Amino acid sequence: MNSKVFLALRIVFGLALLFFGANKLFHFMDPPPPPEEAVGYWTALMASKTMTLVAVVEILAALSLLLNKYGALMMLILMSVSVNAVLYHITLDMDSIVMGAVLLVLNIVLLYGYKDKYKDLLNG
User: Fold this and answer.
1) Which of 14, 30, 81, 87 could form a disulfide with 65 if both were Cys (CB 3.0 to 4.6 A apart)?
2) Residue 31: what are its φ and ψ, rounded to 5°?
3) What is the spatial distance between Cα 108 and Cα 104, in angstroms, rounded to a whole number?
4) What are phi and psi of 77, to 5 degrees?
């Protein structure tokens, strides 16, 4: 992958993760109401503080991308958040799947950009 394209994607993704992770912690933007089918799911996520953990993971991933430190590791960790976001939207809120899909695609593209870092891990 072209290093300038990778740098641009890394910065854009890092800024987006920082913004949305901080929003989960500080609530400066009101989220849209969840669909009726997902209210119980969101109630459980909020009561268990799972969304706080997701926010911390997103902020740490953002900082690692912006500072160019441990980005490969954070993209592996963030993959669980990306996949869960897409699965949530596929099963409970298909109308707003765009952001989850963008998160997953950017995560996969950056994983590919860091592919050299994973060679020893994949050699087993």
Assistant:
1) 14
2) -75, 155
3) 6
4) -65, -40
Residue with structure tokens 């976001």? 85
Residue 110 structural domain: 3-123
Closest among 1, 16, 113, 112 to 63, alpha carbons compared: 16
To the nearest 5 percent, what fractions of the chain are helix, strand and coil? 85, 0, 15
Give the span between the Cα atoms of 29 and 100, in whole angstroms: 17
Number of compact structural domains in the chain: 1
Q: Distance between CA atoms of 78 and 38, rounded to whole angstroms?
A: 22
Q: What is the model's pTM?
A: 0.91
